[in-house]
Design a protein that fits this description.
This is Response regulator transcription factor. Pfam families: GerE (PF00196), Response_reg (PF00072). The protein has two domains: 136 residues, Response regulator (Rossmann fold); 70 residues, Winged helix-like DNA-binding domain superfamily/Winged helix DNA-binding domain (Arc Repressor Mutant, subunit A). Helix content is 54%, strand content 13%. The chain has eleven helices and six strands. It has a six-stranded parallel beta sheet, with helices on both faces. α4 packs across α6.
Amino acid sequence: MTQPTEPIRVLLADDEAMIRYGVRLILRHAEGIDVVAEAADGHAAVEEAAAHHPDVALVDIRMPVCDGPAAIAPLLALDPAPRVVMLTTFGDDDNVVRALREGAAGFLLKDEGPQELISAVRAAAAGDAVLSPGVTGTVISRMLRSGTPQGAGGALTDERIARLTGREREVLAMLGQGLSNQNIAGRLGIGVGTVKTHVGAILDKTGSASRVQAALLAHRTGLAS
């Protein structure tokens, strides 16, 4: 993955000061990442984002006053809008589903390792979906049970999948597994730029609004299995 010439600007929102401290400590030692603001609730996160223009907002899913999912819409309404990644724990699938439906770029478990956190920030800044592999299948399954994603049902789904090339189907399957562009490129032995081209074609051909919606489609059609 090509790193940006400027540091990735990160907003960290969590009501627990110790969590913020730990995440900030990890990110401050990562090359090309700069924590520019912190907040303890969703309203403050929006205010800080408006003031500091972060590229990525790491937002706790459960916070007082205004929780993570409720902060997504006002964060995405900013110009420029940050990529919003939810910080969550096991067993909070309902709120993760809510956040993804609101437009979150993905979610990351709080107990992931430092390298996973750093990679997630870089992936989000590069436009990748951030989906923790350990719970992606569970969350996707719950989203599918709670309602059919737009443009992903019945004959219409079959028609849209049929538009994809063999390679695009491979890439779609890996999107369903929560893999980043860089990981997909490594598995397929192709360049990251080529993966981005395939992802763009997949979104266009299937009518998916985002990588997360494409991941849903991959699970619904059985490609991700």
